[in-house]
Specification:
This protein is mainly β. The chain contains no helices and 9 strands. The N terminus is likely disordered.
């Protein structure tokens, strides 16, 4: 999606600007599309993942979007990511590292290769930027 798309609410062009803004006010109500969750990642519950890519660089190495997961426990291997929680709550356990409690307004950085376990207490929606 082009970052000049008004629905994306991003300022810039097809090339990622050094500085950018994402208007959070539209994110809580944005319609998201189903995303595949590998059943091997599910530890407990029946979590459902949805999302929407707002912008992707031509080489695919940077992605900005919205992502949501319903309650449950899942594992993941992370990309290099910065995200801000818009709504919901989760505990993210980083293997060999920190235990992160995240909720509305929290900004979180995950390192590429981190192996994590997400315990989603309330449906979590986040705005994210991933780079590789």
């Amino acid at each position: 999606m082009n970052v000049t798309d008004p629905e994306a609410r991003l300022a810039g062009s097809d090339v990622a600007p050094a500085s950018f803004v994402v208007n959070i006010s539209g994110i809580p109500d944005a319609e998201l599309e189903p995303e595949l969750l590998d059943p091997a990642q599910i530890v407990s519950g029946e979590p459902v993942v949805t999302g929407k890519v707002l912008w992707e660089s031509p080489d695919g190495r940077q992605v900005r979007g919205i992502w949501q997961i319903t309650p449950g426990v899942v594992t993941d291997t992370e990309a290099s990511e910065l995200f801000v929680v818009v709504s919901g709550r989760a505990t993210i356990e980083v293997e060999g590292g920190a235990v992160l409690q995240v909720g509305p307004g929290d900004a979180c950085v995950l390192r590429e290769g981190d192996r994590t376990r997400w315990t989603v207490h309330e449906t979590l929606r986040k705005a994210y930027h991933i780079s590789s």
